[in-house]
Each structure stands twice: as structure tokens, then as C-alpha cells.
Write a structure and sequence with these properties.
Radius of gyration: 33 Å
Oligomer: single chain
Number of strands: 26
Largest sheet: 6 strands, antiparallel
Structural class: alpha+beta
CATH class of the largest domain: Alpha Beta
CATH topology of the largest domain: Rossmann fold
Mean pLDDT: 92
Number of domains: 4
Number of helices: 20
Low-confidence stretches: none
Shape: flat
Length: 680
């Protein structure tokens, strides 16, 4: 039997305040969180929804250093942008706080002190990289070197962004400081660690035995971590941005962001209500963490271990983490600007907040990674919101205005078909609740939309526009039922599309209806006068979608150009003019080309250099076929010392360039030139 709870505490992963929120964040965390919270409120539950900006850590300092501003300027800018964007989208947090608040600093410090005083930490001294020029220990992201896997010379101390490998600073080849460019030395530094290995037994029993109902992706990742064996994890680091470690001898050290950020849920609740302990320390509270899959280990392994070590707090009942949402077939990336940013969407699609909420829920990555495409966005708006939900509501209200001047007609005797339709309507509630209670929000949304489909089919089958001439009394019953279905829609769509629910209530001239009334057939009284019908949704045209696709195409082009410029080799050592004069570069014409046997890359080219005909062996077979080359004019360094390759004497070198994708490209004159023309 399911446990009954007196109250609910819903937390949403704290967005990192070094950039705006994008659709991946919304689909992964915030839309599901808001649906669940709104549902609980509609059912009259005691619920708090908690969120805020995560404002500490090295990524903030990197952003600030790049822009030449203080970390405070960065967090203020993005905290305000994120908070306002959430408000505009209709997110119903009870508080949106921030980890730079005094309340949070005090709460996190007190939490650390209690664990420190009770001997819950391990104190260890280890050698870490130090920048002597900058006079500071370096976080992994400030250490740059060559990746041992792909030879990328700009890999970070925690990850190579070119090949995606997870790294440690010690794995880098020739590590150096990203701050000063200097080589690094190692120095001893002291830190405090939470011994996660001591909590393995508790975690195994609590998760693997006690929460088998968790989503497979969450349960599986937890099991994998536990089976590999947990290790102590540092709770402090050498950095000048964050909450100072509150013990003597810890100067220049702050709480690690992974330690202080989840405590932000507690401090935000403390800011919100003096009654905060009831939500955090009473077993009658059900706590649910909404997160993305990249946060599973922190919310299911690390934070529960912290809470267990503290001893006074409840543990989460569920952590319904979503997978990732991709964009047009490619991974969403903040650094590459490959995203649909919430604040830009709200500016470019005014009044379409619920369209985004609907599409992101309908396509939510609940069990596997999913893909957002602008064409699917358009199709769902036009074929579902406009053609199904909007169409039904508009017909029901417009016909009521047309036939009865907006006055709700009385319901007469019911036919068998009326009863079947109303039975379908009444069955929605249980299915809808079961899906939401089990965090199946996509299925829940389908069930809510099913109410509109029931209504559409009912009107299409009954055809009141035809019956009004022959059986006007029957039409009164049909439209009364259609209006009851419309009123039901205002209840069932509210957790998913709050702006749409408000429009429905305004057009029906009704106050918000109780959740328990779903399925009722007396929500709109006979004789009640409805308001003026308006379109709930409008079609999105092709040119609007094309503008968004063009925007992404421009981003992709800019990324390719940036990658190309980053991969350009540095200038070689200077040469004298006489050195240059000794190079004899001539326009030459390729007369014949063939592959060199038993090689993949080599072509044998016969060229007319104007001074002779000669053979050149060139490693371009993966970029050009022999047929593509015959007749082309190219630039040849003709006085290069000959080399024998695969038994062929190669006399000269074809000059080539490399494009952004790594393809070799011939350097050719812009117009035909006589073979032998000197370049210089």
C-alpha cells in the first residue's frame, strides 16, 4: 500500500548562473517539475516548489575572466535573466532563490561545521597543480594540455571537448596554466573529504532494496556507481569564489560547488518560510527531486550521503531524472550556441508560452534521449493544438453564441451515445492521476488532450449545425454537453498549459474548478452566459519556422569557422626574402592521374610545368578521384628535391589548403594561365 504523505517538497535542479536557460533544461527538469507541482496544488495538497540559481564554482570565474568582469556581475546578469524567463513561461516556483544569498552562506557553513565537529570528514593533504606566476592552485578547468587520446592540444584538466574523453590533470601531456600560460608545478594542499564509501551499505539498502520503483535510468546508474565502489570525495577546493570553508587553517579554500549547491534547496526553503523544518525534517513530507540525468549521482548518491551524515533531514522519495533533449539531430551545447534559448523564444514567439510547454512535454526524453525539431514543433502546434484542442473549443463556444446568444442551453434527455461520451470523459481522471503520480507526464498529457478528442468526435458525430433546423431541442443537449467537456478541459490542461486554462476559464466566465470535479457534467449551469469566443491557438506558418532553421544554420556556419580558426597552425619561424626567392612555384596543368597500387592515399600525377613534363606523387587520393584532376591547373613547387615514393620518383609538390572540415583543396589560378607561369 502506497504511503500517505501530509505535505510535498518539490525541488528543481538549480540552473547554473553562467548562461541562459535552454529547451534542454526545460524538457529535462523544469516543465516536468511544474506539471507535478501544479497537479498537487490542484488537488489541494500542501506543497512547496523550490528552485534558485547555482552561483559558485569555477565555471563562473572562467566566464568572468573571459569577459573581464567580476563573478558577481556574471551571476547577477544570469540570475535575473533566468528568473524573469521562468516567470514569463509560467513556472510556479514558491521561491526562486540564489546560492549567493546570506541565508545560503550561513546554512551551508552550519551544515559543514556540524559534519566537521562530528568527525564525518577525512582531512587529507595531497599534491595539486600550482601556477607560480598567478600564485594559486588551479581548478581542473584552468589546466590545459594535450589530450592523450586524440592529441588535441587544448584539452582541459577534466575533459577533452574534441573527443569527449573524461580526464584528470595528471593525464594531460605538457599541462600548463590557462591563466598565465606558464608550466605548472605541484604543491601540497589540504582538503576535507566526505567518505562516500562509508555510506555504501546504507545506499544499497535505501536505493537498491527500498526504491525499485525508480525509473530504470536512475536505478541503473545508481547500481552501477555502487557496484564500482564509492570513494571519498573532496568537499573543499582552492578557489577565491564561493563560500569560505568555515574552519581555522582553511584560508583560500571554499566549499566545493557540488557540496554547497544542493544545500541551496534547504536555504531557499528557510528563506521562504519559518516553518521550513516541517518540510525537511518530518517523515510526513514527500520530497521529490527533478533533475537531468547528468545530476543523478549528486542527487541519489552524494546529497543523500550528506543528509544521512547530518542525521536530521529526510531523504528524497523519488528522483525522476529525464534523459537529454537534442536539437535538430545534434547535442545541445551552450559553448557552441547550439540551443533554443528560452528568453529568445519568448521574445520571438509572444503569446506562445504554452505551445513550447506542450511540445516539450509531448516530446519529453523520459526514457531515452529525444530530438527537438522546428518542423515537429510546427506540426504539433498546427495538427494538435490548433486542429484538435483549439478547433473543438472554438466550435462549442461559437455555436453557443450563434444559436443562443452565449447563454448555456439546458441539457435534455440523454441518448445512449451521450452516455457513452460522458462515460469516456469520466474515465479520464483516474488514468490522468495514475500517470502524473508515476511521473509519466507524456502519457498524462495525451490523456488530457484526449478530452478534446472526445469533444471533437462528439460534435462531428452529432452535427448540431445540421440538427438545429430539424431538432433544435436535441441541439441544446449537444451543446450543453460540449460546454461541460470544455469546462473539464480547463481543469485537465492546467498543469501542462496554464495560460490556455486561464483563457478557457475567461471565455467560459468561470472561476477555477476543483480537480475532483473532473468528469462532472454540471460545471456550467444552464442559463449561464459565456464570454466572447477567441482562438486558443493560431497556425504557425512555414516562413516562421524557416527563420529559426536559418538561425541555426548561421550558428553552425559560425561554429565551423571558429573551429577552423582554432585549428590553424601557428606561424612558422621567419625566413629571409632570399629564402623565398629560392622557391620556384609554377602554374602547371595536370595531364594524367592514376592511383598508386597498394596505397589508399597516393596518386601519381603527370603535370606540364611549362618547362617539362614530370611525375609527382601526392597524398590526395582520399580527397580527389583521378578523373576530377585531369585538366586542372595547379600550383607546383618545381625545385623541391626529388623523393622516391613506392618506386616512383616524385619531382615537386602540389600546393594545397585545408578547409574547415579537414578536406584538402587545390590552390588554382582564378583564370586560365599558361603552364610555367611563375608565382611570386
Amino acid at each position: 500500500m502506497a504511503k500517505e504523505f501530509k505535505r510535498y517538497l518539490v525541488t528543481s535542479a538549480l540552473p547554473y548562473a553562467n548562461g541562459p536557460v535552454h529547451i534542454g533544461h526545460l524538457a529535462g527538469v523544469y516543465i516536468p517539475s511544474d506539471i507535478y507541482t501544479r497537479y498537487l496544488r490542484r488537488r489541494g495538497r500542501d506543497v512547496l516548489s523550490i528552485c534558485g540559481s547555482d552561483e559558485h564554482g569555477v565555471a563562473i570565474t572562467i566566464k568572468a575572466r573571459k569577459e573581464g568582469v567580476s563573478p558577481k556581475e556574471i551571476i547577477d546578469r544570469y540570475h535575473n535573466l533566468i528568473k524573469r524567463s521562468f516567470e514569463r513561461l509560467g513556472m510556479s516556483f514558491d521561491i526562486y532563490s540564489r546560492t549567493s544569498s546570506p541565508v545560503h552562506a550561513q546554512t551551508a557553513s552550519d551544515f559543514f561545521r556540524k559534519l566537521y565537529a562530528e568527525g564525518k570528514f577525512i582531512e587529507k593533504t595531497s599534491e595539486q597543480y600550482y601556477d607560480e606566476e598567478a600564485q594559486q592552485f588551479l581548478a581542473d578547468r584552468y589546466i590545459v594540455g594535450t589530450c592523450p587520446h586524440c592529441q588535441n592540444e587544448k584539452a582541459y584538466g577534466d575533459q577533452c571537448e574534441k573527443c569527449g574523453s573524461t580526464l584528470s590533470p595528471d593525464e594531460l601531456i605538457a599541462p600548463h596554466s590557462a591563466l598565465s600560460g606558464s608550466p605548472l608545478v605541484k604543491r601540497e594542499t589540504k582538503h576535507w573529504y566526505l567518505p562516500l564509501d562509508k555510506y555504501e551499505g546504507f545506499l544499497r539498502e535505501w536505493i537498491l532494496e527500498g526504491h525499485k520503483e525508480w525509473r530504470p535510468n536512475v536505478y541503473g546508474q545508481c547500481k552501477s556507481w555502487l557496484d564500482l565502489g564509492l570513494q571519498p570525495r573532496a568537499v573543499s577546493r582552492d578557489l577565491d569564489w564561493g563560500i569560505p570553508v568555515p574552519v581555522e587553517g582553511a584560508e583560500g579554500k571554499v566549499l566545493y560547488v557540488w557540496f554547497d549547491a544542493p544545500i541551496g534547496y534547504i536555504s531557499a526553503t528557510k528563506e521562504l518560510t519559518p516553518d521550513w523544518e516541517r518540510y525537511w525534517k518530518d517523515s510526513g513530507t514527500k520530497m521529490v527531486h527533478f533533475i537531468g540525468k547528468d545530476n543523478i549521482v549528486f542527487h541519489c548518491i552524494v546529497f543523500p550521503s550528506m543528509l544521512k551524515a547530518h542525521g536530521e533531514y529526510i531523504l528524497p522519495e523519488n528522483v525522476p531524472a529525464n534523459e537529454f533533449l537534442n536539437l535538430e539531430g545534434d547535442k545541445i551545447s551552450t559553448s557552441r550556441n547550439w540551443a533554443v534559448w528560452l528568453h529568445e523564444y519568448l521574445d520571438e514567439f509572444p503569446g506562445k508560452e504554452d505551445v513550447l510547454r506542450y511540445v516539450l512535454c509531448a516530446n519529453a526524453p523520459e526514457s531515452k534521449d529525444n530530438d527537438f525539431t522546428w518542423k515537429d514543433f510546427q506540426a504539433r502546434n498546427n495538427n494538435e493544438l490548433v486542429a484538435v484542442l483549439g478547433n473543438f473549443v472554438n466550435r462549442a463556444l461559437v455555436l453557443t453564441q450563434k444559436y443562443y446568444g452565449g447563454e448555456v442551453p439546458a441539457c435534455g434527455s440523454l441518448t445512449d451515445y451521450d452516455r457513452e461520451t460522458l462515460a469516456e470523459l469520466q474515465a479520464v481522471k483516474a488514468t490522468l492521476e495514475q500517470n502524473i503520480e508515476n511521473y509519466r507526464f507524456r502519457e498524462a498529457l495525451k490523456e488530457a488532450m484526449n478530452v478534446a478528442r472526445i469533444g471533437n468526435k462528439y460534435l462531428a458525430d452529432c452535427e448540431p449545425w445540421k440538427l438545429v433546423k430539424t431538432d433544435p431541442e436535441r441541439v441544446k443537449t449537444i451543446l450543453n454537453i460540449a460546454l461541460q467537456i470544455t469546462a473539464n478541459l480547463s481543469i485537465v490542461v492546467e498543469p501542462f498549459m496554464p495560460f490556455t486554462a486561464a483563457k478557457l476559464l475567461a471565455m467560459l466566465r468561470l472561476e477555477p474548478l476543483d480537480w475532483e470535479r473532473i468528469g462532472a457534467t454540471d460545471l456550467v449551469a444552464a442559463g449561464h452566459r459565456i464570454g466572447t469566443p477567441e482562438l486558443l491557438f493560431e497556425k504557425i506558418e512555414d516562413d516562421v519556422i524557416q527563420a529559426q532553421l536559418d538561425k541555426l544554420a548561421a550558428t553552425k556556419e559560425a561554429n565551423l569557422a571558429a573551429e577552423s580558426s582554432q585549428n590553424i597552425d601557428p606561424q612558422k619561424d621567419s625566413i629571409s626574402f632570399d629564402d623565398f626567392q629560392r622557391m620556384d612555384i609554377r602554374v602547371s596543368t595536370i595531364l594524367a592521374a592514376e592511383k598508386v597500387a597498394k596505397t589508399k592515399k597516393l596518386l601519381k600525377l603527370t603535370v606540364d610545368t611549362g618547362i617539362d613534363r614530370r611525375e609527382i606523387v601526392s597524398g590526395i587520393a582520399e580527397h580527389y578521384t583521378p578523373e576530377e584532376l585531369v585538366g586542372r591547373q595547379v600550383l607546383v613547387l618545381v625545385n623541391l628535391e626529388p623523393r622516391t615514393l613506392k618506386g616512383i620518383e616524385s619531382r615537386g609538390m602540389i600546393l594545397m589548403g585545408e578547409d574547415a572540415a579537414g578536406k584538402l583543396v587545390l590552390l588554382e589560378p582564378a583564370a586560365p594561365v599558361n603552364s610555367g607561369a611563375v608565382v611570386g
